[in-house]
Design a protein that fits this description.
- The chain has 25 helices and two strands.
- The chain starts with 6 loop residues before the first strand and ends with a helix.
- It is mostly helical and 494 residues long.
- The chain has a domain of 341 residues: Orthogonal Bundle (Hydantoin permease).
- A hairpin with a 2-residue loop joins strand 1 and strand 2.
- Helix content is 70%, strand content 2%.
- It is found in: Membrane.
Length: 494
């Protein structure tokens, strides 16, 4: 006989839910969104380290140094320092927002129900989902190119397909990504654990290939592309903000992964071991390889897929492309599909299960890349480049998510004091449908950030958007929650 009321039990600081009919019959619950059982939390610190190695070693990370030197006016040395500092900084919201996922086994959308409301959580979820789908499309484009080059190295006739071959590669890689995520979290853990050492080997191999053709002294001596005599502070801070924005999205939905961690210690150490150094080293590799590309292949090439495609040996191209396919797959599945899959389920858990949500994620990602795919097929002509989308819209859009990170941290640690009603997060009678404190705390910093675009005096607010947004969002949310609690406290005392 099914129990009517849900029960919550605690084992070594980890909480799990024995769902009764009050939760099982709720429209806010399905099996995929349910809290993980303690026995399902099998990821130790090395699995989480592998997760971050797998996500960090990807084509966009490789190009970060070039983005900072070309678009943000930093020297090579300054760019690499900005990448290292940014990833140390982003560890703070990553580890803090991972805490409730580990303790209660809940994914990101369910955690947001505490700060934005049971229904209101869908708004920040869909904002987060859109940027993830954009990244999914871009990474799939790189993966599709790698498949095209792989097939071209194996079958001579494939090269003649040109852009059509790249589109076919895109669709094959697109389907492969969806298949991995549909199979569940254990498939992702297996993929990340397998790919991490392979990806490190790829990095070492590329470095050995490039080092004889580049002088690190000359590379570090290249002057920055900014006005002579200009202060480095504002340029460095803007680049730092952009680099924090690179993982700003993951700092929100990290509970989607930390819900599988064995303990808080495992999730903290895994993130510390896996993220900052991997990002720094692979971005540094990108800088070295781009500098060496002129001597290696005769032209400057800023992405590894195209660079390796210039190698004359079909065997080495095939091997390298196979490894890049694995690298891009490990990044894409974890970083860009898991979150929107959970976010879309949150809209109507009884209607949208994991498989439907994965397919919806794939469809949105496909539509966002439709323009680029039509260009490759020769059906349209356009000057808009994938690099423009990557360096401008996505990094800028990510920085607007800062207030959500601040609100989540303040809500869990200061307002709720690390205590959540686990069953209540899946019902309609504990938390409000819409928590307007969360929306005001999110809306004010975003509005100020957008308004600062047209003001020279307040341009710093946009330049440092993630920092100003997260801090202001957290402060406003705390103030609103304290003010709202005051009347009830006075009434109770009387």
């Amino acid at each position: 006989m099914q129990q009517t009321r849900s029960q919550v039990t605690e084992r070594d600081g980890l909480y799990e839910l024995e769902a009764g009919s009050d939760v099982l019959d709720s429209p806010r619950y399905n099996h995929d969104m349910a809290p993980t059982k303690v026995r399902e939390r099998t990821w130790n610190k090395w699995h989480i380290t592998a997760l971050w190695v797998g996500m960090s070693i990807c084509v966009p990370t490789y190009t970060l140094g070039g983005v900072l030197t070309a678009y943000f006016g930093l020297s090579v040395g300054e760019a690499l320092l900005a990448i290292l500092f940014a990833n140390v900084i982003v560890l703070i919201p990553l580890t803090l927002n991972a805490f409730p996922g580990t303790k209660y086994g809940i994914p990101f959308p369910v955690l947001l129900r505490s700060s934005f409301g049971i229904l209101g959580s869908n708004v920040p979820c869909l904002i987060r989902a859109l940027v993830a789908c954009g990244w999914f499309g871009i990474q799939t484009m790189f993966g599709g190119l790698a498949i095209h080059l792989f097939l071209g190295s194996v079958f001579e006739g494939w090269k003649s397909l040109g852009g059509t071959g790249e589109v076919i590669g895109f669709m094959v890689f697109w389907a492969l990504n969806l298949w991995v995520v549909i199979r569940g979290a254990e498939s992702i853990k297996w993929l990340e654990t397998l790919s991490a050492p392979l990806l490190v080997a790829v990095g070492i191999g590329l470095l050995v290939w490039a080092m004889p053709n580049v002088s690190m002294t000359e590379l570090l001596a290249i002057p920055p592309k900014r006005p002579e005599g200009a202060s480095v502070v504002s340029y460095f801070a803007a680049g730092l903000t952009a680099m924090v924005g690179f993982w700003a999205t993951l700092s929100l939905n990290i509970p989607d992964f930390s819900r599988y961690a064995k303990s808080q210690k495992d999730q903290i150490l895994g993130q510390i071991f896996g993220l900052p150094l991997t990002m720094f080293l692979f971005a540094a590799l990108g800088v070295v390889m781009t500098a060496a590309s002129v001597k290696l292949v005769g032209v400057t090439v800023s992405d590894p897929v195209t660079l390796i495609g210039h190698i004359q040996s079909p065997v080495w191209v095939a091997v390298a492309m196979a490894l890049i396919i694995v690298a891009t797959l490990s990044t894409n599945t974890a970083a860009n599909i898991v979150s929107p899959t959970n976010d879309f389920q949150n809209i109507a858990p009884k209607v949208i299960n994991r498989t439907k949500a994965v397919l919806l994620t794939g469809l949105v990602g496909l539509l966002l890349m439709g323009h680029e795919l039509l260009k490759k097929l020769g059906l349209i002509v356009s000057d808009i480049s994938l690099e423009t989308v990557y360096s401008n819209w996505l990094l800028g859009y990510s920085s607007l998510l800062g207030p959500i990170a601040g609100i989540m941290v303040v809500d869990y640690f200061l307002i709720k004091k690390q205590r959540l009603d686990l069953a209540g997060l899946y019902r309609d009678d504990v938390y409000p449908a819409w928590n307007w404190a969360g929306f005001l705390a999110f809306g004010v910093p975003v509005a100020l950030t957008l308004l600062s675009l047209g003001s020279d005096a307040f341009s710093w607010f946009y330049s440092y958007g993630w920092f100003t947004g997260s801090a202001l969002g957290g402060v406003i949310y705390y103030g609103l929650c304290v003010m709202r609690a005051q009347p009830s406290a006075v009434k109770t005392a009387v």
